Amino acid sequence: MNELILGGLTTVSADFAEMGRLAAQMILERKPLIIHCPFRLTSRNTF
After folding, report:
1. Is this model's pTM higher than 0.85 or not?
2. What is the DSSP string of 2-45?
C-alpha cells in the first residue's frame, strides 16, 4: 500500500469558496443559473 500512496494521491475537489460566492451572487440578484462547477485537480505521483 505504501508503494501506491507514497507520492500522494491525485485528487479532484470542488472550489467551495467560489461555489459559495456564486451561490450568494445568484441569491442576491435573484437570477438562478445553471453553471459549471469550478474544480481543482491536484496531480500527484499516484501511478
Report:
1. no
2. HHHHTT---EEEE-HHHHHHHHHHHHHHT-----PPPEEEE---
